[in-house]
Amino acid sequence: MAIHIDANDIGEAWLQAYRSLMGAPGRSLVNLAVNIRDPLVEDTGVRAALERDLAQLRAAKTGTTWHSVHTVANTIFPISLYHPQLPDAASRFFDLSLAGSQARHGKNKGWGTYIGRLVAYQGPDGKHINQLDRMLRLLRESRHWADLYEAPLTYAGETLTADEAVGADMHIIGPGDRRRRGGPCLAHLSLTSARGKLHLTAQYRRHSYVARAYGNFVGLARLLNFLACESGHDVGTVFVIGTHAEIEPVPGRVELLDAAIAAVGQQRPIETSSRPLGATWSDLDLPAISSNGAL
Amino acid sequence: MILNHLDCSLVDSRAEGVTVTDRNAVRDAVIVGLAEVYGVSPADVEERIDAIGGDDLIELDSKTAEWIIAHAEKEFGATLLTPVEMGREQFATVAALAAAIADALGVAE
User: Which of A35, A121, A289, B30 would you call most buried, defined as having the most Cβ atoms within 10 angstroms of its Cβ?
Assistant: First the structure.
């Protein structure tokens, strides 16, 4: 069964999708499509309800690693590395993200991170391609093209010459990926430029709505904001397709839905760039849980 | 992403080429790395630290810490663990991260 959701902000989008999944057989759906009309706005009430639940799940040691919305969003767009007030902000962001990504090593390197695959995607020839840099150059140079940014039969960064772009969609999963479970779950990103606005579509092969979806929405919104601001566009919509979307089989799913519904109504702009030097970051951690499970 | 491995060491078994013997040198590397992330000078960072009240009051995001650790690895020729493998308390502030790196490199107090 396919479901389409159209929401004003990130919090409403997550809550509507979560509610649909709760009513679906097995709490999973094939092709859950979520449109977020204003992705730069969230509902901090809904987010807080989710993060209280994530903290409880972490404390319960369910076998899954539960992270804050901030941490999940950072895998797509590491917000502390973007300083738009500085000259060459985009280049600086790429350099910092690339250095951090390349420094990942050892037992937890795994498949990397989404931002790592966006700034250093390994093509079929083994060369690494900065997909975000390529995308920005196309957006800056070809603003009259609405749909240049899709070419699903090409591979990321495929060119005829060094300067001529054939395809400019962004790939996360490559030809060498054969993992049946685990990351990367985000498969593909595409952009559409229309009437001065930049819109982002993301396709997930599997989208988990407790552990990941809210943080992914925030990360995608920040990525879209970055690409739009750095190319002279306004921010459009974020459209997320989960070809297989699910609510994970962990306790407390109905309680989370009730808590999120009760908390609706605290719309706030999301942060889109680094906080100032010396500002706190600890407020973005999951709330602390005491030994008896209380917040 | 952050794991709560409270007892994990910052340095992994492949550390090599460690020559630093001064904890101040480690702190300096952290300050330089932080300055590069924010696009300011190390003096600007020191000024901000003084204004706020000390190294233990300058909080770091995990991605900033990841970049600073990468910078320290180049500086000292060692392979260090990343924030994903550390407890948050080991990189939450400038003071914590500098201490964790110094300890990992075996620099005496």
Answer: B30
Extents of the domains making up chain B: 23-104
Query: Residues of A with CB below 8 A from B81's CB?
Result: 106
CB contact under 8 A, A282 and B59: yes
pLDDT given at position A179: 55
Contact at CB, A279 and B59, closer than 8 angstroms: yes
User: Do A277 and B48 make contact, defined as CB atoms within 8 angstroms?
Assistant: yes
Q: Taking CB atoms and an 8 Å limit, are A99 and B37 in contact across chains?
A: no
Query: Can you give the pTM of this predicted structure?
Result: 0.87
- Say if the Cβ atoms of B63 and A81 lie within 8 Å: yes
Q: Is A60 on the interface with B (CB under 8 A)?
A: no
d(CA A255, CA A9): 22
Q: For chain A (length 295 residues), average pLDDT per consecutive 10? A: 94 98 96 98 98 94 87 95 97 91 59 83 79 87 56 45 46 57 75 89 93 97 97 96 94 97 98 97 88 60
For residue B24, pLDDT over 70 is answered with yes
Note the pLDDT of residue A145.
59
Asked if pLDDT for residue B26 goes beyond 50, the answer is yes
Of B48, B57, B85, the CB nearest to A106: B85
Q: Say if residue B34's pLDDT is above 50.
A: yes
Judge whether A102 is closer than 8 Å to chain B, CB to CB: yes
A140: distance to nearest CA of chain B, Å?
A: 24
Judge whether B30 is closer than 8 Å to chain A, CB to CB.
Answer: no
Q: What Rg, from alpha-carbon coordinates, does chain B have?
A: 13
Interface of A with B in 154-193 (CB under 8 A): none
Q: What tens digit of pLDDT does each residue of B50-92 get?
A: 999 999 999 999 999 999 999 999 999 888 888 878 888 999 9
Quick check: ipTM above 0.90?
Answer: no
